[in-house]
Amino acid sequence: MNQNDLINTRNATMDEAREEMANLLEARPANYSLPQPLYNDPQMFRVDMEEVFQKEWLFVGMTSEVPNKGDYFTVEIGQNPVLVVRDADGSVNAFHNTCRHRGSRICTEHRGKVANLVCPYHQWTYDLKGNLLFAGTEMGDAFDMKEHGLKKAHTKTAGGFVFVCLAKNEPEGDFDEFLETLEEYMEPYDVENTKLAVESNMYEQANWKLVIENNRECYHCAGNHPELLNTLLEWDDTNDPRASDEFREHCAAQAAEWDAEGIPHEHRSFGPGLRNRIVRMPLKKGTHVMTLDGEAGCKKLLGRVKNPSLGSMRILHLPNSWNHMQSDHFIVFRVLPISAQESIVTTKWFVHKDAVEGVDYDVARLRQVWDATNEQDRILGEENQRGINSIGYQPGPYSETFEFGIVNFMEWYSETVQKNLKG
Ligand code: 3BY
Ligand code: FES
Ligand code: FE
Q: What is the pLDDT of residue 191?
């Protein structure tokens, strides 16, 4: 076979995978877990990468991680290294972290600060807008510097959240409306004046969809999350039909306080499968934040917050993030796929930028509950994956009352992939 034949064979294999994906999703009963290949097959994973992670808006981090000019962090979206950097004009830019010379990664650290972006291989140098400034003296007369700037990824920021999109064209939809709401709901926290207290990167041997499925239900909470359940109410909404009168009274009392303080709390959601969703939920009566004992994790409250009991404002962004905003600290979660059966879950804890470690907050205490919860969820995800890999696996039913969040996720996933496959 010559090179073209080889490329054609490869394309034909991907075309088959795309067709198989479309057929599997088309035939999928809405309230059942997915067929096995969608959780473990490498070709299906490539379709997920191409149709979801390389086309949709993804949460990557917070603007307060890059407070000053030249601050950057890096992130790997599947096989795509991306760098997020603060420009001199204050904007946050994202680029493919791959040199326009011969493709080396440019920023090799997880985070750092630079004046310019210098490739470690042959020192091609780019400014913070991605323009090529220097390529040595040996590239010949015909070489055009302007044609060799870094490739940009679309970037949007709102309420301190940074989203990137690797597609050529941004996806259509109501993402901007979600961002406006995010801006409004995040206002009390003054995110620009927060700092990263600590982060964890957890490797999980499970397909990314299993990580999200696990997060979208609390059916498993009672049996697995003793630390989290000290403070977290299992319902995902204040009007859950299963909730007791006591729960409703608690919600109403909290809502009255929040209204008086101008703290947004009402449920807002956008897109198919409530893809982007914000709701503030009270925590258990008598607890303030998600620490082991429910008492503050940081003595300095965030932004203009006065009330230590702001519950947790839950922010969901499919396909890859859920978040908990509280009075004294907030926690963001990011899921990124590595392969069909591997993912990375990154958790970051933020506090007021003037809070002093060891005085106002103790990192070990701050992270305790979600470290425990993440580890419990990792084991659940990995066991879920192992069972799904069996020839004995058969898609099983989701509970309508406990697992509607997964039904929604699957609705979004299925619609999005099918739409994107059609191009
Ligand atoms: O709290 C969360 O992030 C979600 C909600 C329910 C289960 N899971 C722990
Ligand atoms: Fe970057 Fe050569 S690959 S300078
Ligand atoms: Fe869990």
A: 98
The ligand placed nearest to the CA atom of residue 311 is 1
Chain CA centroid to CA 148, Å: 31
- Count of other CB atoms within 10 angstroms of residue 157: 17
pLDDT given for residue 323 in this prediction: 98
Judge if pTM exceeds 0.90.
yes
CA of 126 to the centre of ligand 1 (A): 41
> Within 10 A of 151 (CB to CB), how many other CB atoms are there?
11
Please report the DSSP string for 80-96 in residue order: EEEEEEE-TTS-EEEEE
CA atoms within 13 A on the CB side of 141: 0
Token pair belonging to 286: 């008598």
User: Given its phi and psi angles, is residue 82 left (phi above 0), alpha (psi -120 to 50 degrees) or beta?
Assistant: beta
In DSSP terms, which residues pair with 268 in a beta bridge?
278
The whole-angstrom separation of Cα 92 and Cα 156 is 8
Measure the CA–CA gap between 208 and 341, rounded to whole angstroms: 8
CA angle 276, 280, 286 (to 5 degrees): 150
The alpha helices in 84-217, defined as continuous H runs, are 175-186, 208-215
CB atoms within 10 A of CB 218: 19
Distance, in Å, from the CA atom of 18 to the CA atom of 21, rounded to the nearest integer, reads 5
Write the pLDDT tens digit of every residue in 339-386.
Answer: 999 999 999 999 999 999 999 999 999 999 999 999 999 999 999 999
- Residue at 204: amino acid letter: E
> How much is the pLDDT for 10?
77
Contact by Cβ (8 Å): 267, 312:
no
Ligand 1 interacting residues, C-beta cut-off 6 A: 215, 218, 221, 232, 322
Location of structure tokens 């390389």: 54
The preferred substitution site among 225, 228, 232 for testing ligand 1, maximizing ligand atoms within 8 Å of CB, is 232
> In one letter, which amino acid is 259?
D
